């Protein structure tokens, strides 16, 4: 019984996979507010799957890249829950979930890229082979710097049509596909560490200005 | 479990990842991981750096607290967590972790106020809190004077924790940091000023006492202001430097510290007298200051007011204070918070327990 969730996009998404199939899944109706929405969504999804937390055998979590505050909610939840239940935690690059879904849904064939919204007029981007295996990235950059005429899956492509002329769906990562990627061994398993890709904003202060 | 609940408390409102465990009013563990060294070169806490550090420290700190307390997580009766006020991104890490604990263990969750926790922690050292009491909370983030009628926040029609006064500009601890920087002392400034001041003369320089003039007292009787004092210290130091004279660091530190403590104690005792309250609790990081403790003790005794100050380790931000307040919530039968508990960076002090 695998519990999967992702908080790397504005949507909070949760799923339970029983080894054969996704048996329950929910996503937030409201965007953002990851910290408020994740735990109740997990509770609801477990209830729908008629599972007690103690019956879970593993956790899969999207490790981003994604906006930091939301991303950390998913990761600290996964780490804490994994610790409490004594079960393994599998990290999955959130872009990989989109890639596996796009291959499965047939929206891409051959090589393609995945781009999500990194805010500050930048995108998170990674390259994939025809099976949906990551072959480059992820990186964070200005759309113009990583512009491409090839197929690009994800919200980052849809947001910047000038840089990405061939935008494809799906738009945001979903926990169902994180679960599928883990169960079917279709993505690299990572430690549950956030893929920040950016350093924190922090300035070393100059000497205090004189007051007189 | 009502009488002696085993409560785990999580605190991540600033740069300390704190996990405390209490049974009733007995402290079993107080594990703290601080990211203060990562902020030192920036001269103040960098929110994103703090949030990243909380994520890394969270589970190891929970493990350390359980090991120290000699309890298993499955023994815990309730989880308490600071859900405000504080740095939004930092709070969120603790809140999410607390929810995962509550969810995984099937225990109730109590989202509590950071300031009220600073007051509640004293129960771990000096037993049940006298109610009403007056609380002076002073740290790098807050300077408040509170009238505490019910530490769990419920009292008849009114709030159980009423703000009587607060700083109108810098927090007291911030003033310590800024003056330390002027004097070339490291961040955080509090302990360094305290140490330097021991060698100095506290009446060497007559620094201003903010908001104590008769006119200020009309509008701001119980409020504080430290920004003018900080500027006065800067002017004095600059004048010395310009004159090519050596800056007497110990005297400046002692005189500055005296000015801060004088105002804090004076206003706290005035508030106690005006409310007819005989117990004064002092908490927050600045309560670790040795001069503040001594001055409060000395002046309060003269007025027949009892002073309670937790030991320094419990004055700074920690998880035990959150567990202490959570334990009181359980003991008084307060309803637990919901799993959609938000982190609220500007949570008012009157909101002690989240719904
Ligand atoms: Zn504090």
> Quick one: how many beta strands of chain A?
10
C-alpha end-to-end distance of chain A: 68 Å
Report the sheet with the most strands of chain B, covering strand number, pairing sense and barrel closure.
5 strands, mixed
For CATH, the homologous superfamily of the largest domain in chain A is named as ATPase, nucleotide binding domain
Number of strands of chain B: 12
Q: What is the average of the pLDDT values of chain B?
A: 94
Assess the beta-strand content of chain A as a share of residues: 25-35%
Overall pLDDT level of chain A: 94
First-last Cα distance of chain B:
21 Å
Q: Which ions and ligands are bound to the chains? A: zinc ion
How are the strands ordered across the major sheet of chain A? 3-2-1-4-5
Low-pLDDT runs of 5+ residues of chain B are none
Number of distinct helices of chain B: 13
Helix content of chain B: 40-55%
Q: Radius of gyration of chain B over alpha carbons?
A: 20 Å
Principal-axes shape call of chain B: globular
- What series of H and E elements makes up the topology of chain A? EEEHEHEHEEEEHEH
Along the chain, the helix and strand elements of chain B come as EEEHHEHEHHEEEEEHHHHHEHEHH
Given the C-alpha coordinates, what overall shape of chain A results?
globular
User: What's the assembly state of these chains?
Assistant: heterodimer
């Amino acid at each position: 019984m695998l519990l999967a969730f992702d908080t790397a996009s504005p949507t909070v998404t949760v799923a339970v996979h029983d080894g054969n199939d996704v048996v329950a899944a929910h996503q937030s109706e409201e965007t953002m507010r990851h910290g408020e929405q994740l735990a109740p969504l997990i509770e609801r999804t477990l209830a729908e799957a008629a599972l007690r937390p103690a019956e879970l055998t593993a956790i899969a979590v999207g490790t981003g890249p994604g906006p930091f505050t939301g991303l950390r909610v998913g990761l600290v939840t996964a780490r804490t829950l994994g610790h409490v239940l004594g079960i393994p935690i599998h990290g999955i690059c959130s872009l990989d979930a989109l890639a596996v879904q796009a291959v499965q849904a047939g929206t891409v064939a051959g090589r393609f890229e995945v781009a999500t919204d990194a805010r500050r007029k930048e995108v998170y981007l990674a390259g994939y082979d025809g099976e949906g295996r990551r072959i480059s990235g992820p990186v964070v950059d200005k759309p113009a710097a990583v512009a491409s005429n090839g197929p690009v899956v994800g919200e980052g492509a849809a947001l910047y049509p000038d840089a990405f002329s061939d935008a494809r769906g799906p738009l945001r990562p979903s926990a169902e596909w994180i679960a599928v990627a883990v169960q079917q061994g279709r993505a690299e398993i990572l430690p549950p560490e956030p893929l920040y890709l950016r350093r924190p904003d922090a300035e070393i202060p100059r000497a205090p200005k004189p007051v007189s | 479990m009502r009488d002696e609940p085993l409560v785990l408390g999580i605190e991540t409102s600033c740069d300390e990842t704190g996990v405390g465990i209490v049974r009733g009013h007995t402290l079993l563990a107080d594990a703290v991981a601080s990211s203060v060294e990562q902020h030192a070169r920036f001269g103040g806490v960098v929110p994103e750096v703090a949030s990243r550090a909380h994520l890394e420290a969270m589970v190891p700190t929970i493990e350390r607290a359980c090991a120290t307390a000699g309890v298993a997580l499955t023994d815990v009766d309730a989880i308490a967590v600071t859900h405000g006020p504080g740095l939004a991104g930092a709070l969120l890490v603790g809140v999410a972790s607390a929810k995962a604990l509550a969810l995984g263990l099937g225990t109730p969750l109590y989202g509590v106020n950071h300031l009220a926790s600073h007051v509640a922690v004293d129960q771990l050292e000096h037993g049940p809190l006298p109610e009403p009491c007056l609380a002076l909370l002073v740290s790098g983030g807050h300077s408040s004077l509170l009238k505490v009628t019910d530490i769990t926040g419920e009292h008849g029609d009114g709030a159980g924790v009423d703000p009587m006064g607060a700083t109108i500009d810098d927090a007291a601890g911030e003033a310590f940091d800024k003056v330390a920087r002027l004097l070339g002392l490291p961040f955080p400034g509090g302990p360094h000023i305290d140490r330097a001041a021991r060698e100095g003369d506290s009446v060497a320089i007559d620094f201003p006492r903010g908001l104590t003039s008769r006119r200020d007292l009309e509008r701001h009787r119980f409020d504080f202001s430290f920004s003018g004092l900080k500027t006065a210290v800067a002017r004095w130091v600059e004048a010395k430097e310009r004159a090519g004279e050596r800056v007497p660091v110990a005297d400046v530190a002692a005189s500055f510290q005296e000015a801060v403590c004088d105002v804090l104690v004076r206003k706290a005792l005035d508030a106690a007298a005006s409310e007819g309250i005989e117990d004064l609790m002092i908490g927050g990081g600045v309560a670790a200051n040795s001069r503040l403790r001594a001055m409060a003790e000395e002046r309060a005794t003269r007025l027949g007011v009892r002073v309670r100050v937790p030991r320094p380790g419990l004055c700074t931000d920690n998880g035990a204070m959150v567990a202490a307040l959570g334990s009181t919530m359980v003991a008084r039968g307060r309803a637990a918070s919901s799993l959609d508990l938000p982190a609220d960076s500007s949570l008012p002090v009157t909101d002690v327990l989240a719904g």
